[in-house]
Amino acid sequence: MYIPTIDTTMMIYVLLGLTVILIVWIIRLETRINKLLQGKNIDSIEDAIVKINEDSKTLHSFRNDSVEYLKNIEARLKRSVQAVETIRYNPFKGTGSGGNQSFATAFVNEKGDGAVISSLYSRDHVGIFSKPIKKFVSEFEMTEEERLALKSAKDSLVYAPKNTNEKRTT
After folding, report:
1. Are 139 and 132 within 8 A, CB to CB?
2. What is the spatial distance between Cα 120 and Cα 126, in angstroms, rounded to a whole number?
């Protein structure tokens, strides 16, 4: 049986060809890596990954701080006045005096807590009254105009509960 043998010259050409192919391949990989890192002040990909990880931690911390801040703002908004309605009226309609100088104004938050302030105007006297409101109800007797101002304020709230026992849903 005949076994072909490769002579030394042929072996050198094959190895030389493989060397050229490997050199071209290495040069091509180097250019691709240089393009990947071009224009950056980072010496290695490991440094880039470390920097991205640090930035990610900073963003995560900022996100947590922002969420806490927004929760604080939401809690403060729920306690703040969110509806103000004023009703002007003449308490002395039959006598022809007074005009529409009297008023009732309701100031309430979304839970229905607040106050109704009313003014009773006559030619020689002005009276100002304030009544606390809890869950859209006052423990003091209210005039029709005060009830109307409170109802208008309640209706102007976007998320006003229809029943004081209901919770707001979004």
Report:
1. yes
2. 6
Q: How far is 56 from 95, CA to CA, in rounded Å? A: 75
User: Residue type for 31, please?
Assistant: T
Q: What's the 3-state SS for the chain?
A: CCCCCCCHHHHHHHHHHHHHHHHHHHHHHHHHHHHHHCCCCCCCHHHHHHHHHHHHHHHHHHHHHHHHHHHHHHHHHHHCCCEEEEEEECCCCCCCCCCCCEEEEEEECCCCCEEEEEEEEECCEEEEEEEEEECCECCCCCCHHHHHHHHHHHHHCCCCCCCCCCCCCC
Q: Which amino acid is at 111?
A: K
Residue 121 has a pLDDT of 85
Rounded CA gap, 170 and 167, in Å? 10
Where do the structural domains in the chain lie, given as residue ranges? Answer: 82-156
pLDDT in tens, 65-81: 999 999 999 888 888 88
Amino acid found at 128: I
